[in-house]
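The material for today's practical consists of a large collection of protein records. Read left to right, the backbone structure tokens trace the chain's path through space. An example says more than a description, so a record of this kind follows:
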Amino acid sequence: METKTVLAQGAVDQTIQNVFGPFVDVLEKVVFFAIPIGEAELPLVVIWLLMGGLFCTFYLRVRPFKDAKQTFRVVRGMLARKSDPGEVTSFQAFATELAGTIGLGNIAGVAVAISLGGPGASLWIIIAGLLGMALKLAEATLSQMFRRVNSDGSISGGPMYYLKDGLTSVGKPKLGSFLGRFYAIGFALSAFGAGNIFQANQVALHVIDITGGTDSFFANKAWLIGVFLAIPAALVILGGISAIAQWTSRMVPLMSVIYAVGVLAVLGANFTDIPHAASLIVSGAFNPDSISGGVIGVMIIGIQRALFSNVAGVGTAGLAHSVTKNRRPAEEGFTAAWEPFFDSVVVCTLTALSIIVTGQYLNQGEEGVTLASNAFATVNGVFPWLLSLCIILFAFSTVLSYCFYGEKAAGYVFKENKIAELGYKVVYLLMIIVGAAVSLDTVVRFSDATFFLVSIPNLLGIYLLAKPLRKEITEYRASVDNGTIDVVPEHEQVKMFPKLEKTVADS
């Protein structure tokens, strides 16, 4: 019996699956309405996101590498003052968003894409990642333009606010109010999917696999793994955005280094196979015989997995960067633009190469994170345990990030009611247990459906606000080119790690 089938066999696990599965079936049919193209089916929502990425790339004149120097200053906290409105630094927002995107989607998601679409799916992940840079630039900039600074100094911001207030500013108040609420309700739901259900499921699958498979103590008790993941998550989540930002700003560099060491070891051991792997990626992306559905089929699989991984167009960048200490909205846009690059172009490509050079992509008996684990095992028996550490860190960081995102969305729906927000956190933590118990197929379909659902109102708002958005970005670039954006005196800078640097200074 395959490990992947074990997750839903216990009494508790099977009950959860029976209740959750039919709901996902209905949701998927609604969101992923598709049109047939040859042997493949192209979901209309995928076209929607691709068109949004192309539009923003050219209309906003995205030039991340040219803006890189200024972006580095923003991330270092050199351009923001301690007195500026906001709750976290630009780097902490950057880390929070990366914590939510550089996760199991980069491991299990890439593995799923390759197992379904072959090596060629990796190239479409890269392409979608590059287009996603423009979408996150737009989301983060708009979130700063239309955020609200509350009387207690806290920030209310994100897509629901730039949809409501932004569209009101251009003469569409009723549409803005509707789209804002639509987005908030949809995202409060979608945070359960990608934020905890998918993460918990893959952690459970991996733990069962490395502890004996069908003979593991957890084989019919996957929900217990969800409990073990939910307890430490609760300790951080109940501390609010400041606690989450502090954890993610420290975890992202650590987990990225650990994972990079493991992947580079795999690639180093198979160095001579890298050119062939790259060739398979390029040829497979345009090979009509690669899978059923040909080129279109491979493209759809790759783009879907990329969008699930980097979430460009979903609005999370707007949620993360709305709370930063900043007075110039475009600066946060420049910072956010790099998030899909690191996620889909760098990390996803490294994962794909490790699976391809080791030949694991040919193993049709495994799926998800197990493929990556098998690739790591080809180097040394210790390396799957290294991957296990990465998986836990990735999953934990994503759980933290998406709880903040979902809480902000729920807060909008319930008009910042603290009891309602606390209730959302409790339900969010309980859904970790649900995720550990249900099947991978159900998890992936639910996560995809809820994610793509919220992209509809978000991108519509970006289209309608494109003119003031472009004006903001153009004017800021002109100020940079003219040398009118000065570095803040060092004693007034927010820095990257304000609390850490304060401790060092006090010492």
Notes: Confidence is low (pLDDT under 50) at residues 1-9, 500-507. The first strand starts at residue 34 and ends at 37. The two ends are 58 Å apart (CA to CA). Residues 70 and 480 are 8 Å apart (CA to CA).
